[in-house]
Amino acid sequence: xxxxKKILLGVTGGIAAYKCATLVRLLVKQGAEVKVIMTPDAxxxxxxxxxxxxxxxxxxxxxxxEDKTWNNHVHLGLxxxxxxxAPCTANTLAKMAYGLxxxxxxxxxxxxxxxxxxxxxxxxxxxxxASTQANLKKIASYKNVIIPTEKGELASGLEGDGRxxxxxxxxxxxxxQLKSAGKLTGKKVLITAGPxxxxxxxxxxxxxxxxxKMGIAxxxxxxKQGAEVTLVLGPSKLSPEKNVNCxxxxxxxxxxxxxxxxxxxxxxxxLAAAVADYKAADYSPKxxxxxxxxxKIKLExxxxxxxxxxxxxxxxxLIGFALESENVIEYAKxxxxxxxxxxxxxxxxxxxxxxxxxxxxxxxxxDKKGKxxxxxxxxxxxxxxxxxxxxxxxxxx
Length: 397
Ligand SMILES: Cc1cc2nc3c(=O)[nH]c(=O)nc-3n(C[C@H](O)[C@H](O)[C@H](O)COP(=O)(O)O)c2cc1C
Prior knowledge:
Blueprint: E1 6-11, H1 19-29, E2 33-38, H2 48-55, H3 73-79, E3 82-88, H4 90-98, H5 104-111, E4 115-120, H6 124-128, H7 130-141, E5 145-146, E6 150-153, E7 159-163, H8 167-181, E8 188-193, E9 198-199, E10 205-206, H9 213-224, E11 228-233, E12 245-248, H10 252-263, E13 268-271, E14 278-280, E15 299-301, H11 305-312, E16 317-324, H12 328-338, E17 343-348, E18 360-361, E19 364-367, E20 372-374, E21 378-379, H13 380-396
Parallel strand pairs: 1-2, 1-3, 3-4, 4-5, 8-11, 8-13, 11-12, 13-16, 16-17
Antiparallel strand pairs: 6-7, 9-10, 14-15, 17-19, 18-21, 19-20
Helix pairs in contact: 1-2, 1-8, 3-5, 4-7, 9-13, 10-11
This protein binds flavin mononucleotide.
Residues 12-16, 39, 41-42, 89-92, 121-122, 126 line the site of flavin mononucleotide.
C-alpha cells in the first residue's frame, strides 16, 4: 500500500518511543522507504541501532554526524512524502506551536513541505493541561494532522487519555491519506518503454539505441500520483520504482500481446517504447554461418501497437511518442490522425540532448486540434512531470 512512498519518522523522548520500532517495521513491510530522526532525549527510550536496523537507514539525532558532515535537515524535509512525529512529547508539541528550532527534528519540521502527522503521547494530566490543549489547537491550525491519543492504562500507572495511537492505527491513517493524495488515484495506466529486440538467429537481433529512461521516468511519475501503472518494458538495463508493475518483454510481438490485453482495462496509455518496425521474416534456429557471399535477410513489418490500440480505443486516453529526424511536427500531426491518438509527444533527433540514451529531453506536445506546445530542454524526470501535468489538464477538459 505504501510502495515507493518516502516516510520520515521523528521520534521524541516519550515512553511510547518503544512502539515506533513496530511502526517502522509496519511501514517497511508496506513498501515504504523509511528514514528516522530522533531528538536527543528520545535516545533514552529507544536505541538508534534498533531503528537503523529496522528502517535499513542511518538514524540521525544531531545537526552534525560523527564525521562532522552536516545532516541536511532541508534535504530531509524535501525528501519525505510524509513526516510522522510519533510519539510527540508535550515538549516537542510546544516547540512546534512556537517554531523553536533547537534540534535536528525541529529544523526538519520547519523545513518540511510534505504533510506532517503528529501522534502525541503523554500522561493524562499533561494532555489535559490548558497549555498542551492550546498547543494542539495551534499546530492543527498549521495544517498538521493530529493523530488522536487513546484512552487506557498509562506508563505512570494512571488510567485515562494520553496513550499514543497504536502503530497499526497510524499506519492505516497514513495509507488512507497518502492514497487519496495522488492526482491519479484510481486510474489504470499502461506505459511502454525501451527498445525491442527482434531475433535473427540464436545470437543476433535487430535492436535500437533506446535506453527506456524516458518511459521509466513517466511510469515513476504517474505511479507517484497514485495511478496503478503497468510498464511493459523492452530489454533495458534500467528498472522502474517498486510501485510500478513491470512486465519485461523482448520483442515487438510480445509487447503487442501484453499491450492489447492490458489496454482494455486501462484509462490512459502512453506508448513511449521504440518498437522495431521490422523483424526477420524467417528466424534461423541455428547460428547463421559467415561466408564470403552477401547475406540477405528478408524483413517483414512488426505489428503496429499504437494503431491497433487506436482502433480498440473506447474511453481511453491514448498518447503516442514520435521521434523523427526531420519534419517532426508534420509527421506527428499525421500520426495523431492515422492512429487515433489524443495527443503526441514529439522529439527531434536534431535537438542536442534530446532522444535516446540521454538524461535530458526536449519535447513538443501536439494535441488533436493541432495545437503545438513547446518545452525547453529538461531532465527526463522533469519532462515526465510536464507530460503528467499535460495529461491531467487534458483529462479535465
Ligand atoms: C521516564 C520518562 C518518561 C517520559 N515520558 C514522557 C511522555 O510520555 N510524554 C511526554 O510528553 N514527555 C515525557 N517525558 C518528558 C520528556 O522526556 C521531556 O520533556 C523531554 O525534554 C522531551 O524532549 P523531546 O521532546 O526533545 O524529545 C518523560 C520523561 C521521563 C524521564
